[in-house]
Amino acid sequence: MAAEGGGNGLALYALRRLINAVPLVLGVVVVNFVLIALAPGDPVMSLIGEYPAPAEYVERVRQDFGLDKSVPERLWLYLVNVAKGDLGFSFANRQPVLDLLLQRLGRTLVLMLSTVVVASTVGLFLGVIAARKPGSVTDRGATGFALVGYAVPEFWLGQILILVFAVLLGWLPAGGFRSVRVEYTGMAASLDMFRHMLLPMAALSFRYMAITTRLTRASLLEVMSSQYIVAARGRGLSENTILWRHALRAAALPVVTVIGYNFGFIVAGSALVETVFGWPGIGRLMYDSIYTRDYPVLLGILLFVSMTVIVVNLITDAFYAVLDPRVRY
Amino acid sequence: MTWSTVKRALFVFAALLLAVPAAAQETPVKGGTAIVILGSDPEHLNVGISTSYPTGAVGANIYSGLVRSRADGRPEGDLASSWTVSDDNLTYTFKLRQANFHDGTPVTSADVVYSMLQIEAPNHGRFKTAYDQIASIEAPDAETVVITLKVPYAPLLSLLTVFDAPVLPKHVFEGTDPLTNPANDAPIGSGPFKFASWVRGERVEIVRNDDYFLDEALLDKIIFRIVPQDVARSTALEVGEADLLWGFYMPPADLPRLASDPNLNTWTGITIPALYFVFINTNTPGLDDVRVRQAIMYAVDRDQVVEQAQGGLGQAGSGPFGAGFAYAYDESTDYRTRYPFDQEKAKALLAEAGVSGLQLRFVYDSARGAFAAAGDIMRDQLRQVGIDLVLQPAERAVMVDRVYKGDYDLTMQSFTSSGDPTIGYHRIYRSAAPGTPFVNATGYSNPDIDAWLDQAGGLADQDARAEYYARINEVLANDVPVMVMFDELASEASSGNLRGMRTLLDQRDGLEFLWFAKP
User: Fold this and answer.
1) Angle between helices B369-384 and B302-309 (to 10 degrees)
2) Are B402 and B363 spatial neighbours (Cβ–Cβ below 8 Å)?
């Protein structure tokens, strides 16, 4: 890697990574398309209802949506359209896939970003206080929490949270992304949405909080025994200064990697959590479109997810340079 | 009837005694918004081109049909103020009321004829079955519609409701492709509610039509809230985020919990008879032998399935058409006396057929909890007689694909009668080529049965129909291509102060009768 450093190097590096990503995304699209096309289940069935439909009708719907063509033909058409920025037309929602994604995107991003921020912040903090005195009560508490958090499935946790905070205590709404009975505007509407977001966010963050806690702790313990920390101690710096100013920065590198790496999993987790909480975002859309075999929507979401993961990983790489002055692009 | 069904019946009876005097003092009041739960987004809101459940739930309250069915099944005029039937039962003449579409245009006989001929006959599965019996649909003047049948057809009126033959505005649909017309997402009907808005994945809103031709709706607005997860639906009702949970979307397992909530009302009963079946693939080696199919009938305790898989909300199957239609039920061939739970008899029949070590695949929709539970019970009980049942849960789309292409041995399905065995159940027993979803999937084919089904479907006189059904019942009780598991009891849960549910036959219809009692 070029050692001149500076913003220019990073920009060139980012460009190279993006160019490298093109065949990757193409591969993702093709593999997904073929997998979905080979999977059993007929999308037309979800469109005609629960009663036998006239055969001519079924045939006409099939033609309308181009489902009468062969798989390679459909794949080629799809790729050409995607290259033109057209993600196709949703069978089940009867609107362009891109419009549908954009409608849902905001709600999912709000949920995902707050999950990442909360999970990373709380996780880092818990990891640090656990590593400060290994073997202490705080350490055991934090690692115990991390173990449980890692083991608990999101959809189950979501249901328990609803049971406790919505049904038993009545503090928070049980589902949806805004109140149904009252219509709020302005600030009140934002607050209303925030109240609806707390439980799904908690359900989604738990696991990533746990991962971040464990990793921060392990990474910190390793750094704390390295020679430069011993040297810092020798110079008489306080334990807190060493921990927060010297050790954490070095220990954060693997943590940042994992946060970036987990972004894709958070999207997957959001499919479950959004379904449990009736949150109308991309995750719910993914769940619904698998159920109705709405291929164009499913492909659009998978394309979006893979591009997000690539971009987030790129941001993660850029973060390395900020955290660790030895890293240069 | 099991003890718990008796207890439940007594309980319902006691509740009715208590509830009637209280309800009698209440007078309906106008105003308010009710939140009704749907399990998924409708694909669109045009009931004229789809039999989909959520589409019907919303669309039925926006559009009108010629007739509608009261809760007791009695037909009454919807857009039709009256009708006459000719002596030969072939010609139905309908007079229309003065009514307007939501855009102000009057509803005329031209709209009726256009909807039926141009939109519903080619696109609507259930109306198509009626249309196959129809010779002509004509409009001699603006207020009159004449439907002439090829042969007498008993269920005609129940296929002219809003669910099968909604009257769509001709001026909106003419010259367009009805499948892609934008009005499918923002419908213009003539019903008690007008379409207001739709946020996919979240809600559909409809508001009162102040220009409605019958009794105006009592509520100002209805919000259909989309809650995909069944547990979350019950919770929404418990915490007051919804008012009404019904039909397909009511999780039977949650009923006892909801019933014990003092803020909620619950109801169980039969509106439109519906059956749960186990189809037996007669093309599977072994299952082609009638003795093996009979052995399966003896080997499964259907009362236990009702109790454990369906939370008691049902009655063990009594015959091919259930117990919901007196003329199609026959006591002498009742499966409950003909095939009592008797595993020794099952073993004997299997031995007689020379079948041993039979392994069968049980294919079912993995989203249906009752099917999975029934599968578990059947696996245990069939193992006792030496049949190895392999449970194969599949997503609905995959299940439909496999079952109706014949790639299964046993499968569980639930069908609604839609108010007449001709509409709902005949398709299960009539010979059919494999590959068409929701029709005969057992491969069973009997020309006698086909002929008798056609006869029974054509007659308006119920005694005459009963004769044909008796013959059919007798043959099917011996051949058992289908194990009728149970007659379903429907259930519903609602806010304690919501009134006016189930005024019409279909739970999804007639939301204009809903109102809130003052606390």
Assistant:
1) 150
2) yes
Return the pLDDT at B169. 98
Q: What is the ipTM of this complex?
A: 0.82
Asked if B179 and A51 come within 8 Å (Cβ–Cβ), the reply is no
Burial of A165 (0-12, 13-18, 19+ CB in 10 A): middle
- B125 to A52: CB separation less than 8 angstroms, yes or no: yes
Q: Which of B126, B232, B395 sits opposite A51 (nearest CB)?
A: B126
SS3 A111: helix
Structural domains for chain A: 104-328 (1.10.3720.10)
Is B43 in the A-facing interface, judged by CB distances under 8 Å? yes
Interstrand relation of B144-149 and B134-141 (parallel, antiparallel or unpaired)? antiparallel
Most confident of A67-76, B151-160, B450-459, B509-518: B509-518
Assigned fold of B274-488? Dipeptide-binding Protein; domain 3 (3.10.105)
State residue A13's pLDDT score.
Answer: 80
pLDDT at A134: 83
**How distant is the Cα of A57 from the closest Cα of chain B, in angstroms?**
6
Q: Which CATH superfamily is domain B3-46+191-270+491-516 in?
A: Periplasmic binding protein-like II (3.40.190.10)
- Interchain CB contact of A312 with B (< 8 Å): no
Beta-carbon separation of A50 and B51 below 8 A = yes
Among A36, A50, A62, A282, most B C-beta atoms within 10 A, so best to mutate, is A50
* pLDDT at res. B282: 96
**pLDDT 10s digits, A16-70:** 888 888 898 889 889 989 988 888 777 777 677 777 777 778 888 888 778 888 8
**What are the chain A neighbours of B40 within 8 Å (beta carbons)?**
288, 291
Cβ pair B239:A173 closer than 8 A: yes
- Beta-bridged to residue A70, according to DSSP, are none
Q: Residue A147: which residues within 8 A CB-CB, separation 6 or more?
A: A210
